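Question (not urgent): is this output format expected?
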Amino acid sequence: MAYLEKDKTLILRDAEGKLLPVEVELEYLPEKPTIKATPLTKGELQELYRFPEKEDEVIARHVIEPTYTVEEYKDLKIPVAGAIRTAILALSTDSEQEALHNASVRAVVDSEEAKKKDITPNKS
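Got this back:
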C-alpha cells in the first residue's frame, strides 16, 4: 500500500508563504519552449471557472518568466495564450497537458454540435 506523501501533494511555497515557480514546457508550441509559472490555488481555479472573462488577469499573474502584463497577455497570439493556459492548468491540477487539451477540444466540438442542433429547423 502506498501512503500519501505531503511533499508530493502540497503546492510548494517559500518560507514567506509565496508560491514557488516551476519550469513548465509548452507542449503545444513548436520547439516546446518553457516558462516559469506558479500554480493556481483552489480559489483561483474556482475564480477562473466562474469568471472566464478574468482569464487574462489570473493567468498573467502566474507567468513569472517571461513576465506579461494583463494587457500584453491579452495581445498574445492565440496558440501561445492557449499553450500557456493549458500548461498552467496542468501544473495546477497535476494533470497532463494532453488530457486538458483533448478535453478542451471535445468541449468546443460538443458546443458546436449543440449549437447546430438548436438552429436546425424541426422537420416534424
